[in-house]
Amino acid sequence: MEIQQLRMFLKVAERGSFTAAARDCGVSQPAISQQVARLEASLGRPLFERQGRQVALTEAGELLRRRALQIVSLVEDTARLLCDDGETGKIVVSAIPTIAPYFMPGLLEAFHEEHPQARVEVNEEVTEAILRRCALGEIDVGVLALPASRGYLRFENLFEEELLLVTSADHPMADRDRVELEDLREQPFVLLDEAHCLSDDIRGFCRRKLFQPVSTGRVSQLATVQELVAMGFGVSLIPEMAVRPDPSGRLRYRSLDGEKPTRTITACWNPDRYQSRLMLRFLETLKEAGRPGPVARAT
User: What are the phi and psi torsion angles at 232 (to 5°)?
Assistant: First the structure.
């Protein structure tokens, strides 16, 4: 049983496909199939059930997956401990989809300028997947929004961000002097689907004002939300970091008057894992980044 075999086995288990796993590992599909076959031969048990192009873990495969995660994590932590110069190495980061494309590029650029020899792998995942993978040691740092909790993980809040009202340019509220949340009571909302915590934030804020937003559609990308708003399908609340330039003038962004909806961005990591000097420096970069720089709001 070799560590590389375990890494490839874990990737196939994660992806449910030899082809996808081979692509992620940067090897050919026959190469990864051969390594898994050798692992199965050495253990004398099949690890996967083949289901067409997809595969599923057998009972033995599930047991090995749990142990392999611990073994690979221990090996990687040991390597970091022995080769911990604070400048080289790899950090695996996951961020939720309403943060990853807006906050992470600038953060990674700043970190790369200070640590050009380091490698940072960024994944875009929903909150529950980030918490699970962080607990298992598959990622080093998660960047997500509260509420988020898992007893044995460490959390540190980074900044609070306002949620802005976005409407189409010809919406009746677009040019009003004041708009409060109560004014949106009868307005149709375009929201992200249930997998995204941002929709929970919006519904929770509305419930505190004693109304439930009427949803006209649920989509998976903030860009799609804004496009549907521009087409007149409803209004929405958008994180300030996601405000996009709109040369066509189809969208209007504004702060609500009165109590403003916000979300809190936090970082999480597993304190039981070895914290390399490089990872600690990445966490410091996260903390120093604070909130993203000012964004030009459409008028």
Answer: 90, 15
